[in-house]
Design a protein that fits this description.
With about 230 residues, this protein is an alpha/beta fold. About 40% of the residues lie in helices and about 15% in strands. It has a 7-stranded mixed sheet with strand order 3-2-1-4-5-6-7, sandwiched between helices. Helix 7 links the parallel strand 4 and strand 5. The model has no long low-confidence stretch (mean pLDDT about 95).
């Protein structure tokens, strides 16, 4: 296909902002949640949660808003209810994703997901988009000891797939996710996303490749970086 996949036996994807255009959902949920409980956001509030697992993000809310009258589990359940319908009906695949996944399958490469989102949300989203059967492993950072930039969720996914980390290529839309892949000893491809556009330079500093969309891989128009 292209040199990007030379020596690669598995591709592992983040979900939000990488496979699907969904980052807007969480901005919407956060703002609605903050209004509901009359909370005041600290400076750099959203930047502070980049890469955190769903569980870690709920704890982050409790740390930022100690008067919030909820448990971590209650926060997570409420978020899921708020976001679920949007994921099922309004979140699309990134351009060229399905064709790329089918090409990987045809080449016999393993395909996994390593996400900071909850397992329930990921599974339901994949089924709603009709691509659930294409993945050999789905892992959430809630299932490991630490979220990104820790490599844990990527290493667990690679173990599921039976592929050595140095034979894996990961796709990520934010610097913390790219760092997680690098820390796992994997090749990394940064994906353009509207919600991390201001971090594009940092993404290019960290990654091995950069794509505007998945058609770049088919067309050989992706950027090759130092990584």
């Amino acid at each position: 296909m292209t040199d990007m996949l030379k020596g690669i036996d598995a591709c592992i994807f983040d979900l939000d902002g990488t496979l699907v255009d969904s980052m807007w959902v969480w901005v919407s949920v956060d703002e609605e949640y903050i209004r509901k409980y009359n909370l005041r956001k600290p400076d750099n509030f959203h930047a502070g949660m980049e890469g955190m697992s769903y569980t870690e993000t709920a704890q982050y809310f409790l740390d930022c808003f100690p008067t919030l009258p909820l448990t971590r589990e209650e926060i997570m359940e409420e978020w899921t209810l708020m976001a679920h319908e949007k994921y099922m009906t309004e979140v699309p695949l990134k351009k060229g994703v399905k064709e790329f996944l089918l090409t990987l399958k045809a080449q016999g490469k393993k395909i996994g997901i390593a996400t900071s989102n909850s397992r329930e949300m990921v599974t339901d989203t994949l089924e709603a988009l009709g691509i659930g059967e294409l993945f050999d492993s789905v892992r959430s950072a809630c299932e490991v000891s630490a979220g990104k930039p820790s490599p844990d969720v990527y290493l667990v996914a690679a173990e599921d797939l039976g592929v050595s980390p140095d034979r894996c290529l990961i796709f990520e839309d934010v610097p913390m996710g790219i760092l997680a892949g690098k820390n796992a000893g994997m090749r990394t491809c940064a994906v353009e996303d509207e919600f991390s556009r201001e971090q594009a330079d940092r993404k290019r500093e960290l990654a091995d490749y950069y794509i505007q969309d998945y058609d770049d891989i088919k067309n050989g128009t992706y950027e090759v970086l130092c990584g």
